[in-house]
Amino acid sequence: MLIETIRNGLAIVSSVVEVR
Length: 20
Prior knowledge:
Blueprint: H1 2-19
């Protein structure tokens, strides 16, 4: 569960970085 949350956060960060 914790790993999934971290993975989700990482995916969001990746999206933000891609937008930049």
